[in-house]
Amino acid sequence: MKKVYAEILAGLIPHKMTRNRMRGIFRYGLANAVQLKRRINNDHSQPEHFLAVCAIAKNEGPYFKEWIEWHLQQGVEKFYIYDNESTDGTKDILEPYIKQGIVDYKYWPGYRQQLAAYDDCLEVNRFSSHWIAFIDLDEFIVPIKDKSITEFLKRFDSFAAVEINWLIYGSGGQEHKAPEAVMERFKFHSNPDHRLNRHVKSIVNPRRVFTVVMRQRKSQVMPPIPMDNPSKSTSASVSPSRTSSASTIMQSNRARNSSRNNLEEEPAALKER
Predict the structure, then answer these.
(1) Contacts 24+ apart (CB under 8 A), 214-217
(2) What is the Cα–Cα distance from 134 to 53, expressed in whole angstroms?
(3) Better-scored residue on pLDDT, 213 or 134
(4) CB of 69 closer than 8 Å to CB of 100
């Protein structure tokens, strides 16, 4: 019901950018937002992890190892995994990472639970990680000009969130599932200016973010501090601070339908990796 009321209240605001900024705040709750800001102001502890990843998955077991190992190489220290009723032995596959303390596993049943899982991740780990990236199992964050994601993020400490554009990879003519790794199988991507690549994923500072909303092309920044560029976007509702777009120095490679046996036709104008 809170989400419904948030949409109703936000709908009463005529100015589009203000409406988008306040939608997530209403969804989180004004009283909760005030309490959170007070807690943040009084808590000066250092996060245990510099960079973590949060994801919700259902029957993505075969893809976890490659996905986790890739992001570990890029500087990710922790993975918050929400298991949405998987039946493929996901927990058993993750067990080695759980025992090493790399993965925090949580069984999370229900229908359309992505936002609920993300919000839980923010609340539980708000003071545990300096940055949290919210991505899917078919998305690989790839630094373009930096050696790692952590090196890339160090220049954005004053920002509440950093957005990363998709780079969609198509089937490359494959008609059946193959045993090779995802990044070996999918080598052809769309033009960066393809319409699908307008979508973004966010890496957020959880101490400056109230909640997560599915507004991938509009920023949700709470006044009074304005964004540097209101045409940029993030999928998080953030407290007073700024967001930054980093599409030219970081990208999220998305292997379209990599988890399915029958692969969709790839986007037009594919280019080799």
Answers:
(1) 214/115, 215/20, 215/23
(2) 6
(3) 134
(4) no
Residue with tokens 């960079």: 51
Angle at alpha carbon of residue 48, lines to 47 and 54, rounded to 5° = 85
What CATH number is attached to the domain comprising 6?
Answer: 3.90.550
In the chain, the amino acid numbered 101 is: G
Residue 43: is its pLDDT beyond 70? yes
For the chain, the domain total comes to: 1
Selection from 65, 100, 107 nearest residue 85 by Cα: 107
DSSP-H helix ranges across 29-171? 30-42, 64-73, 90-99, 114-125, 149-153
* Nearest one of 149, 131, 150, 153 to 141, comparing CA atoms: 149
Domain span holding position 111: 2-272
- Which residue, chain included where needed, has tokens 């319409």? 195
Q: Which two tokens stand for residue 98?
A: 């759980």
pTM for the predicted model, two decimal places: 0.78
Using DSSP, state whether 20 is helix, strand or coil. helix
- Greatest CA separation found in the chain? 56
